[in-house]
Amino acid sequence: MNENTVKFPVVTTKMLKKSGANxxxxxxxxxxxxxxxxxxxxxxxxxxLQYPHKACFATFRDALYVLESAAYIYGxxxxxxxxxxxxxxxxxxxxxxxxxxxxxxxxVRDDKYYxxxxxxxxxxxxxxxxxxxxxxxxxxxxxxxxxDARIYGKIVAGYINDExxxxxxxxxxxxxxxxxxxxxxxxxxxxxxxxxxxLEAKRSIS
Length: 206
Prior knowledge:
Elements: E1 11-12, H1 13-18, H2 23-31, E2 36-39, E3 42-44, H3 52-59, E4 64-65, H4 67-73, E5 84-89, E6 104-109, E7 118-123, E8 126-131, H5 133-142, H6 149-160, H7 167-176, H8 180-205
Helix pairs in contact: 4-5, 5-6, 7-8
């Protein structure tokens, strides 16, 4: 089935009750596999689960997509990752992004750095929260040991070849997140001169 034929409206318990359904009717719809509960009180058409990221975009409107999920959205990966990566602040409930049917992995971030690189992007018809290109690369560098080496390599190569990358922003973030040495070591073979010019300018200002 073509993805364009799959609908992603999120139906809530309140909406179903308003249309005349009771809990028994809702359970019947679930048993008949016409809808699936993605989280408490929220339902999607079962076929939407074929596209876990888009299903998450529809269900978790305030989620922040990071790491492999962000890289996929930016086109650094040529396939949809099996797991949807979401970052949450320490102030958010651990249950907020829990789902029995969607493959979500939630990472808790220090509030001090939560909004570094926080951005928004329209994607697949949804306005989503996502780390920008620079924060996505830096997160990947920080978590490289837990990532598949091929995926990590594609993310690095994707950023290096990305015409929309912003090296000055990357340097600013990497200094703030204490990753500047790793960034220099990793990117100097490809972007050495550009990096050196930016670093020199930063040093002259400071």
